[in-house]
Amino acid sequence: MLKSIEVMRQYFPALMSALPATMELLLISVIIALFLGLLLAWGRLGKNKAANVISYVIISFMRGTPMMVQLLLVFILIPLVAYSNGIDTSSMNPSVYAIISFSINEACFFAEIFRSAYMSIDNGQIEAATSLGMGRMQIFRRVILPQGAIAALPNTSNMIIELMKNTSIASVIGVYDILGKAQQLGKNNYGRGQLELYIEAGIIFWILGLIILSITNLIQSHISRCDRKGASIHV
Question: Would you identify the CATH topology of the domain 2-234?
Answer without folding.
Answer: MetI-like fold (1.10.3720)
